[in-house]
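Translate structure to sequence.
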């Protein structure tokens, strides 16, 4: 993960997409709320194993809903996926994900809360937010610095396979292609 320090703020890219991070603008203590500089992070590192095939570099980006549908089809145990912006707007969803405008706003608020809870616990960086409930898991992963990916999964989903799939399409999901 790369980071750029500008003023008193550090900006990092959540999933390494092969591009330089976007530095946050200069800030002053009076223009910033008093909170630790936390940034979106990638899911925990994936152990070495068979690599997920990456799409060709020159490939045209498919509609993001198709990427999310592929994710649901390819990774066993994934039931739905939603890509939202950090300011609470839905960008794309899989066909299996309920269509609710409130979902993206709730996910953005949840990630903001998770960053604060990590800081309260002494952490500098949040890697992921996991909600373990009676029907499975809800995984929230930052994608780049401006997007959040929510995944509805079974409890026994292969998270390493899931991470490889997402990382192989990170530049598309982050809106960089």
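Result:
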């Amino acid at each position: 993960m790369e980071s750029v320090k500008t003023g008193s703020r550090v900006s990092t890219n959540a999933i390494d997409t092969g591009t330089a991070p976007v530095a946050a603008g200069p800030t002053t203590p009076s223009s910033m709320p008093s909170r630790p500089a936390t940034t979106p992070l990638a899911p925990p590192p994936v152990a070495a194993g068979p690599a997920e095939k990456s799409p060709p570099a020159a490939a045209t980006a498919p509609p993001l809903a198709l990427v999310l549908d592929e994710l649901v089809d390819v990774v066993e145990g994934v039931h739905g996926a939603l890509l939202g912006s950090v300011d609470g707007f839905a960008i794309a969803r899989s066909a299996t994900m309920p269509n609710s405008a409130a979902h993206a706003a709730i996910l953005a608020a949840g990630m903001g809360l998770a960053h604060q809870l990590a800081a309260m616990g002494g952490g500098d960086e949040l890697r992921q937010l996991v909600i373990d409930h009676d029907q499975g898991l809800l995984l929230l992963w930052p994608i780049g610095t401006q997007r959040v990916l929510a995944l509805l999964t079974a409890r026994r989903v292969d998270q390493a396979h899931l991470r490889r799939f997402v990382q192989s399409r990170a530049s598309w999901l982050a809106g960089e292609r």
